[in-house]
Amino acid sequence: MRPTDLLRTSAFRLTLVYLAVLAVFAFVGFRYLYSESLEALQFESRQTVAAEMEGLAEHYRQFGPRQLRAIVDRRVGYEDRSLYLLTDRWGRKAAGNLDAWPDTVRESGEWHDFHYRRAHDGEPPHLHSARAFVTDLPGGFRLLVGHDIGEEVALRRRIVVFGAAAGGLILLAGLAAGLLVSRDLRRRVEAVDETGRRIMEDGDLSRRVQVTGRGDEFDDLATSLNRMLARIELLMNELREVTDNVAHDLRRPLARLHARLEDVLRGPAEAGAYRDALERTVAEVRELMDTFNTLLAIARADSGPAPTLPVDLAGLGEDLVELHQPSAAERGIELEFAKDGRPPEIEGQPELLAQALSNLIDNAVKYTPEGGRVSVTVGPSGVAVADSGPGIAPDDRERVLERFVRLDPSRHLPGNGLGLALAAAAARRHNARLVLSDAAPDDRPPGLRVSLEFSPS
Question: Is-contact 313 344, C-beta < 8 A?
Answer without folding.
Answer: yes
